[in-house]
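Board notes, transcribed. Complex of a protein with pyridoxal-5'-phosphate.
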Amino acid sequence: MVSRNPHMAKLKAGYLFPEINKRKRAFLEKNPDAKLISLGIGDTTQPLEKHIAYSLTQAAFGLGTPEGYSGYGPEQGQPVLRERIAEKLYRNRIHSDDIFISDGSKCDIGRLQLLFGSEVSIAVQDPVYPVYVDTSIMMGQQEIIYMNCSPENNFFPDLSKLPRTDLIYFCSPNNPTGATANRAQLEQLVSFAKENKSILIFDAAYSMYIQDPTIPKTIYEIPGADEIAIELGSFSKMAGFTGVRLGWTVVPAKLEFEDGSLVKRDWDRIVSTCFNGASNISQIGGIGALDELGMAEMQNMVSGYLWNARKLRDLFVELGYPVVGGDNAPYVWVNFGEPSWDVFESLLCGAQVVATPGSGFGGAGEGFMRFSAFNSAKNTEEAVVRLRKHLTATKEVARV
Ligand code: PLP
């Protein structure tokens, strides 16, 4: 018999979304006519924009012709796509050679574990996108520091109280809270990583949602970040590519390990060894998304989801709940001040709306709910009407 990888046994059961689905099913069995609206998931729902979809079909069509056929491409990605990302998303702050195209950020977070191995210590935000922690545990990493992000610290960790770790994962705009770090905070984060000789892994999957021009869209807007930071990027939430699969990771040439060797060289070795490059169809889709028409289409898609986010945010503000996110992010994080699963049940039974319990993202999420803007405008408007009615009635009852 083969012994089980002991690190797999250390993972907490994937509890959050299965539990949500279990409760949804139980509710629907009792109420088969109920029309649930899901504001629970982080997946995109609206169709691809026309020009971007056309780029993908042209790529697929081209593969069926002698001139358009291509097999394995460079493992680091098609040069045109790398150049376009550098130009359009980084204003050439980053050299295209430092951009490695992938099949999405989640996959790259997994591969980052190979880069750093089992001996590194890490810090993550709490609440947190669970993939950083789970993949680190799978690799056998043992030292995980949780950086509390709550209303008390304006959802930015108190760095003066944090011990040094080798890696610091930081996600802004944040999933699940929707909070964004401002320039001064990111400067602090970069200095903190520099002083501690740590590597910052900055997850910018939602950067396209930033509307406030004063908020940096990439960590490389902060001077010196290219000496300490890796950045994760994704087409998933900006172009609706959650199923198409396309992302990238920036590993700047200046980033070094303790022994002076280049981090980039090892990353290149990893992507060449256990990843054969992103699909050529999705890469051509990405090139289309980054031309003039494609950029306008992505802005349009993002604006649509942000419209939903604003509707949700405005509702909770109107009802007097403390709220963060929804302005520069597709998530609205609402403080109900009651156990998250109780609120989940109340919203499910009382409004037939599904939201995600904040406690599922870490201890600091208890009492909160995450509302996702990834639905149609029509469903979101309907959810807002139902939530207003239900929550107003609940408040009336509480007052009596
Ligand atoms: N990073 C964050 C913070 C996310 O929320 C997600 C997806 O929800 C990802 C990364 C993964 O994105 P991808 O679809 O590129 O794997």
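The chain has a mean pLDDT of 97. Residues 276 and 372 are 33 Å apart (CA to CA).
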